[in-house]
Amino acid sequence: MVTIFLAGNSWSAAERRAEHVFIISFDQGGGEIIRNRPAPEFKKMFAEGAATWQAYTIVPSITLPSHASMLTGVGIQAHQVDWNDYQPERGTVSVPTVFSLAKKQGLATAMFVGKEKFKHLAVSGSVDEFFVGAHAGAIAAEFAQKIGALKPALCFIHFAEIDHTGHRHGIGSPEQNQAVADCDAALTVIREAVNKSGLENASVFILTADHGGHNITNKEGKTVGTHGNSTHADVDIPWVAWGRGVKKNLTISAPVLTYDTAATALWLLGVPIPESFWGRPVISAFE
Ligand SMILES: [Zn+2]
Ligand SMILES: [Zn+2]
Questions:
Q1: How remote is the CA of residue 44 from the centroid of ligand 2, in Å?
Q2: Is residue 170 classed as helix, strand or coil in its secondary structure?
Q3: Where are the beta strands (DSSP E) in the chain?
Q4: Domain of 210?
Q5: How do the pLDDT tens digits run along the chain, 287 residues long?
Q6: Could you tell me the distance, in angstroms and rounded to a whole number, from the CA of residue 166 to the centre of ligand 2?
Q7: Contacts of 212 (CB under 8 A, 6+ apart)
Q8: Number of compact structural domains in the chain
Q9: CATH number at residue 91
């Protein structure tokens, strides 16, 4: 089905380019953090698809505000999610999300996440399946079990342990390297589940992160990871498109901002992109 809108930019034509979009976010999986660690599946998709190690997240480069931008297509000034823990009394984000916009078009949506605070982004009625898992393996297993029945048009997956281990043991620590490997193995499980359920040929994967990080020495003299500022270590994030209609073996040279993830997902699904969006689809990544 092709619907052409009378007004707007060329990319607002609501053509459906993919039946399924899977956005996978590696918490604290900054460009240099993934690039220099054991992540064979991630790097294979990076090499095969259209990708950059240097997309940018927002400042402050912290989890909930950054994911709010990734999934609402606007900056913190607009979405106003400036806190970073689960505070039920604050309710959900007040601007449209990729899920609420997809839902308006009758599309199925799902979130499989590693942190409870994502409930702030699951506006009532906008997410058909919301799962919080203790680690990447549990999230991937739940995903693999549910994907065949859910067949979500828009699915967001989040792995938390690169962040947990980075904070506790430092960036580049053996513990964080293991977490990168574990999340990469979970990515393989997800890829295989999508393949087995027959959805792969109609799917686009977007692999990205909410921020990177840098090491500091804490009060006890221990090296630990942190993030939040505008240095490259903190704001550079990978951005990989892989799958249907994606250009092969392309290094994306145009700037990619985390808001563009939201716009790209809607554009792929043929969901009209609101004029209020700051993000734009990364059309250079697609045929
Ligand atoms: Zn984070
Ligand atoms: Zn963190």
A1: 26
A2: coil
A3: 2-3, 14-15, 20-26, 50-56, 109-113, 129-132, 154-159, 203-208, 214-217, 223-226, 236-243, 250-251
A4: 2-285
A5: 454 444 444 444 479 999 999 999 999 999 999 999 999 999 999 999 999 999 999 999 999 999 999 999 999 999 999 999 999 999 999 999 999 999 999 999 999 999 999 999 999 999 999 999 999 999 999 999 999 999 999 999 999 999 999 999 999 999 999 999 999 999 999 999 999 999 999 999 999 999 999 999 999 999 999 999 999 999 999 999 999 999 999 999 999 999 999 999 999 999 999 999 999 999 999 99
A6: 8
A7: 28, 29, 30, 31, 32, 33, 61, 227, 232, 233, 234, 235, 236, 237
A8: 1
A9: 3.40.720.10
State in Å: Cα 61 to ligand 2 middle. Answer: 9
Which ligand is closest to the CA of 237, given by its number? 1
> Could you tell me which residues are beta bridge partners of residue 111?
130, 156
- β-partners of residue 286 are 246
